[in-house]
Q: What sequence folds into this?
């Protein structure tokens, strides 16, 4: 019996080894592509903040600069008049005297401005705390 047990073990091991060699090795699966993070710079505080510096205006500087450059070209002096010794200019269909404040329609929307001074060929306005000079055409 001892020999019968040995023979059956050898046959079983040979069959197992032959079965293991008969299966072809599996090709390694390709690694899935990692998802890419997409970050959109916020245009204003309502759109998002820097989590490490929440009070920093840095993320919005590009948007503010582009708005200011658009607003600089958005103001047009359409007329100049002097009435009772007081000079007035018409900026985008709104009449201002020196020191007057008001809202003006521009291509970027309503903008609140103050007329600081009227010169011979230009007018100085204040928009959001910054002064700009507009030439009279």
A:
């Amino acid at each position: 019996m001892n020999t019968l047990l040995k023979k059956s073990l050898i046959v079983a091991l040979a069959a197992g080894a032959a079965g293991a060699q008969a299966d072809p090795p599996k090709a390694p699966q390709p690694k899935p592509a990692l998802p890419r993070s997409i970050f959109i710079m916020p245009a204003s505080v309502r759109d998002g903040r820097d989590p490490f510096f929440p009070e920093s205006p840095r993320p919005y500087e590009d948007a503010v600069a582009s708005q200011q450059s658009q607003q600089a070209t958005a103001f047009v002096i359409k007329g100049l008049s002097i009435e009772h010794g007081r000079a007035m200019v018409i900026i985008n269909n709104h009449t201002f005297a020196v020191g007057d404040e008001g809202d003006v329609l521009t291509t970027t929307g309503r903008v609140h401005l103050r007329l600081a001074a009227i010169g011979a060929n230009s007018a100085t306005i204040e928009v959001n705390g910054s002064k700009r000079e507009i030439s009279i055409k």
In short: The chain has a mean pLDDT of 79.
